[in-house]
Write a structure and sequence with these properties.
By secondary structure, the chain is an alpha+beta fold. The chain has 9 helices and 17 strands. Strand 14 and strand 15 form a beta hairpin. It is elongated, with a radius of gyration of 20 Å.
Length: about 325
């Protein structure tokens, strides 16, 4: 069997400029690997339940890819179909995996692709689409990305991320009682009103009265800690923001902003600086939200800035410039 990397021959690149976007950081690939996407089989992962996604938008994307000369050789319909791993993709000779889902499903898929020699194409199929915006520009659309793919205005690049005890966060981590708002999002996804009501009350109580998270190494911010600590790797190193609220009304308002928009930075917060590694502690197990998905941490958690060992395709020319 031919080596997977040798099957995915890249066409000449028209540019190697990386896009400029807000979260998260997408660094250009090394000069030796900066080229347009590999010319070979493309698989597409979709999730019709994600954010702005639907059966209609999935069908429209497939038609658009086919018209651009990149008809998917297979469509993986998550969660009915299992997300593919490296062995499955290599066995099928896949060179590009396009993902049309929300950030949480993207995270789950990328975790299965570590050290894969193919490239990953992120399409805006969720609510915030922060990863798609980082790779293709803040005003990106499915139409503009497929057009860039067809015109070979793409280049592979590495992605900075936050390593946690629960795996990498490609976009952001929220640590502390405020992360329990992700439990409410689960009910909203399923339109489960009893679950929404129960989780909503629990999230307000946890955020208002839960054990605060303290930043201990480096020791920055309020000594007593915060109800939520947001961590991302936008600038390369970790960027730390601490959030605190006063009163149940403020808790509910901030929580709903997290629930609806995942726009944590819009609320009042302390900018705690940047570092390559940070350790936080609490008097209770630390709730975590990674790319919008809930995890349970320990009494102490360490976050580290890393570069993921997998290549993502970014649109060219430089977004916004």
């Amino acid at each position: 069997m031919a080596d997977p990397a040798s099957r995915c021959a890249a066409a000449p690149s028209t540019t190697a400029n990386p896009p400029s976007a807000t979260p998260p950081s997408a660094a250009p690939a090394s000069p030796s690997s900066a080229s347009s996407p590999a010319q070979g089989p493309l698989w597409l992962v979709v999730n019709a339940a994600s954010g702005s996604n639907s059966e209609e938008s999935c069908a429209a994307l497939v038609a658009r890819l086919a018209a651009a000369g990149h008809e998917p050789a297979r469509i993986v319909r998550f969660p009915d179909d299992a997300l593919p791993g490296v062995a499955e993709l290599d066995a099928a000779g896949v060179c590009t995996l396009a993902i049309f889902t929300g950030d949480g499903t993207i995270n789950s898929q990328v975790r299965k692709l570590i050290d894969w020699t193919g490239t990953i194409l992120i399409l805006p199929g969720g609510t915030q689409n922060l990863l798609a915006k980082a790779l293709h520009g803040v005003d990106c659309s499915v139409e503009s990305i497929v057009e860039a793919l067809a015109a070979q205005r793409m280049s592979p690049r590495a992605l900075r991320a936050v390593q946690t005890s629960q795996g990498p966060a490609l976009v952001e981590v929220l640590a502390g009682p405020g992360a329990t708002w992700a439990d409410v999002r689960e009910g909203v996804r399923d339109l489960d009103l009893p679950t929404i009501a129960s989780a909503l009350g629990e999230a307000v109580r946890n955020t208002a009265a839960g054990a605060l998270v303290r930043v201990v190494d480096p020791a920055v911010g309020k000594p007593a800690g915060y109800r939520a600590l947001r961590v991302d790797a936008v600038a390369g190193p970790l960027t730390l923001d601490g959030y605190d609220v006063e009163g149940v009304g403020d808790v509910a308002a901030q929580g709903l902003a997290m629930l609806v928009k995942r726009d944590f930075r819009a609320g009042p917060h302390d900018e705690l600086g940047t570092c390559e590694r940070v350790t936080v502690e609490s008097d209770a197990p630390i709730a975590l939200m990674l790319d919008g998905e809930r995890f349970d941490g320990g009494l102490s958690e360490t976050f580290t800035a890393i570069t993921l060992p997998v290549q993502f395709l970014g649109s060219s020319p430089r977004a916004g410039g």
